[in-house]
Amino acid sequence: MAEVSNKDSFVLDANTFAKLHPKEFYRKFLTNNIRPDGRLLKKFRKTSINLNSIKSAEGSCVLKMGKTSVVCGIKAEVAEPRVDDPRKGYIVPNVELSPICSSLFKPGPPGELAQSISERIDKLFKQCKIIDLDKLCISEKNAVWVLYVDVICISYDGNIFDAALFSIISALKNLKLPEVTFIEEEGKVEASEEKTISLELLSTPLSATYVVFDKKYILADPNEEEENLSSTSLTFIYNEQHKLCGISKLGGIPLSKELIQDCTESAIERTDNLRQLLDSTMKNL
Amino acid sequence: MDKRRINGPEISVKPIEKKSTQPKNNKDDGIRKNNRSVDNIRPIFIKPNVIKKANGSAYYEAENIKIICGVYGPRSSKRSMVSDEGTIYCEFKFAPFSCNKRCGYIRNAQEREYSLIIQQAFLPAIRLNLYPKSSIDIYVTVLENDGTTACLAAAITCISIALTDAGIQMYDLVAAASATCIKGNICLDPDASEENDTNSKFMLSYMPSLKQVTHVLCTGKMEAEQSIEAIGICIDACNSIKTVMDHCLINSH
Amino acid sequence: MSATTVTPGKKLGSIQEYEVGPGTYMRNNYIYSSTVGDIYIIKDVNKKLPCISVVKDKEQSAIPEVDSIVTGKIIRVNPKMATLAIMVVGNKPCKDDFQGIIRVQDVRSTEKDKVQIYRSFRPGDIVRARVISLGDRHSYYLTTAENELGVIFAQSISGETMIPISWQQMICPKTKVMEYRKCAKPN
């Protein structure tokens, strides 16, 4: 086993050193332009998706990004629309980080991380026109579709926002709703057995996340350890026309303009790759 | 109004299914639908070590049942009372999109009951005296539900694999089988539509090598002789499930 | 995978043929396997019967056992004890930290009544200790009362890694300020 000695001449093996002095362990790799899991600094982890595997949901996507796995399921129900907007349907996204995915999370109501990611995704849906909510109307003033978009994290290894957003967009693209009619006399909605109607997405915004370690190293697609050790996190959201839909910079230290512009090209390339992956997976269905 | 989650409208319902005007192509001349025999169990696929971050994990799939289980431990117990033996903690949850009707995020009474059943099913099987002061935490999420009793039985089988994957020492694997009574016959592994039609549910968990039953759950209307018959039939089913489990563990070792 | 891979509950032999080893247990005069793995039969000259054990490839998460050497970080000090987050047991890192305490009478073997915790450990120090007992509700009881046990890594107030100069003192190489710690003997 490789051994590392620190200045006190205590010899520790690599696993112990990584556990006791994680920042030093990372520095030794980053000075040689590589990360402990073997990736280059700007390399994203291998991503794969599996669509429509869950038959009880109207749309579903199972996504793996390295060791991070999420399952997104969409259930469609019917409700009365808001009084001030009698044609608009609802989209209700929620990300669940439960103890099954990592020992970081305790059982009980969602913690800060889950709440903030759900909120960011909800805002993205409200501000960028991803779905025309009028298309979710069944009968004006009486009934509209409510799409409950639930993302369950199965394995947590960092970068949950990218994984959650990509799985939601993939599941929405593959959503199949039944044909419905509103029965005036009973005030009820009747649905056909087969699910045939799909929803058109007006745009597909996807994200790319980076973290900054030690004020100088930019690491793309951080895993859990890298997220804990870094001081700042930076997320870019681009749509298919390479237009910027959002930037979030969470936490810590100030960043220079050059550092931020450095990431934008890599972010556009990454989001294009994800879109290609989604298109090719849908073709092979 | 759950303040910690994004909320939709206060009330939403599933649309009613249109009663189909054409009669369904009834291939069911037998007792069960889809020409399944009385002792037919849906083919099982189990894969261990799917959650890399957990100590042990397993994914279970049988046609339309999909379950994932993660085991963390032995780790220091937050709920510790000083004990010479380890403790088991289990959380069983249906994912919101897993059932026909969407379930919420907060655990309802049925999920809590199932969590306790799983704890009881595993108490005799794990060598808890090897893990003093530690807790073994088991988390099960059902991704797709096709028969709640069948899901519970599947969860117990899945957890055995996950515990072994985590290296936790056990006296024996625990296999579980579910059954219901259709037209006077005991039928194994009922799916959701069969479960809705009958009102008897039976689940048994069994340690095949030690030939001991760890838990029996019988609810609904069932004659006494039928329940005894069901015990025998489920024990046979558990023995065949054990071969699948052994095969899966040995191949992935 | 080999022909000798077994699963939990498999009968391996009788107690007349083998001794019980790790990964196995005895019931009704027979020995059974308690985990999935390969069978190893080791003949020990001192014992009458060979020892049978079942070894799993993937290592189980380490838990501290009595008399094992653990390494961890000091998270809290008060006049009566120092609290340690146990991170490594032997050579195996723990997935989740355990908690241990070093009481004032277990810091060193000489002059136990004159020990001052603040002159032995500070929060942030990496300490090597031995488990004395399973302890109480929250923590294991640890001791550093041996030459090889104690602080193996500490940072001075100015942030530099300190060098031990005796079993009681460490010095910062940059500012040359001396601080008190119960140091472990370097190997």
From TrEMBL, chain A:
Pfam families, sorted: RNase_PH, RNase_PH_C
Keywords from the named record: Cytoplasm, Exosome, Nucleus, RNA-binding, rRNA processing
UniProt keyword annotation of Manganese present: no
Domain Exoribonuclease phosphorolytic: residue ranges: 44-178, 205-269
Lineage: superkingdom: Eukaryota
Single biological process term from Gene Ontology: TRAMP-dependent tRNA surveillance pathway
GO molecular function: mRNA 3'-UTR AU-rich region binding
GO cellular component terms given for this protein: cytoplasmic exosome (RNase complex); nuclear exosome (RNase complex); nucleolus
Name of the protein described by the UniProt record: Ribosomal RNA-processing protein 43
Automatic annotation (TrEMBL), chain B:
Keyword hit for rRNA processing: yes
GO biological process: nuclear mRNA surveillance; poly(A)-dependent snoRNA 3'-end processing; rRNA catabolic process; rRNA processing; U4 snRNA 3'-end processing
Annotated keywords: Cytoplasm, Exosome, Nucleus, Ribonucleoprotein, Ribosomal protein, RNA-binding, rRNA processing
Family recorded in the similarity comment: Belongs to the RNase PH family.
GO molecular function: RNA binding
Subcellular location(s) of the protein: Cytoplasm; Nucleus
UniProt cross-references to InterPro entries, sorted A to Z: ExoRNase_PH_dom1, ExoRNase_PH_dom2_sf, PNPase/RNase_PH_dom_sf, Ribosomal_Su5_D2-typ_SF, RNase_PH
Chief localisation class: cytoplasm
Start-end of Basic and acidic residues biased regions: 15-32
This protein's record includes keyword rRNA-binding: no
Species name: Anaeromyces robustus
UniProt domain Exoribonuclease phosphorolytic: residue ranges: 41-169
TM regions (residue ranges): none
Listed name of the protein: Ribosomal protein S5 domain 2-like protein
SUPFAM superfamilies given in the database record: Ribonuclease PH domain 2-like, Ribosomal protein S5 domain 2-like
Spans annotated as Disordered: 1-35
Ranges in coiled-coil conformation: none
Highest taxon of the lineage: Eukaryota
PANTHER family assigned: EXOSOME COMPLEX COMPONENT, EXOSOME COMPLEX COMPONENT MTR3
From TrEMBL, chain C:
SMART domains per UniProt: S1
Pfam family name, one: EXOSC1
Predominant localisation class: nucleus
Occurrences of domain S1 motif (ranges): 67-145
Record's GO cellular component terms: chromatin; cytoplasmic exosome (RNase complex); nuclear exosome (RNase complex); nucleolus
Record keyword Cytoplasm present: yes
The keyword Aminoacyl-tRNA synthetase is annotated on this UniProt entry: no
Domain of life per record: Eukaryota
GO molecular function, one term: RNA binding
GO biological process: exonucleolytic trimming to generate mature 3'-end of 5.8S rRNA from tricistronic rRNA transcript (SSU-rRNA, 5.8S rRNA, LSU-rRNA); mRNA processing; nuclear polyadenylation-dependent rRNA catabolic process; nuclear-transcribed mRNA catabolic process, non-stop decay; TRAMP-dependent tRNA surveillance pathway
Subcellular location as annotated: Nucleus, Nucleolus
Alphabetized UniProt keyword annotations: Cytoplasm, Exosome
PANTHER family in the cross-refs: 3'-5' EXORIBONUCLEASE CSL4-RELATED, EXOSOME COMPLEX COMPONENT CSL4
Protein name: S1 motif domain-containing protein
Organism: Anaeromyces robustus
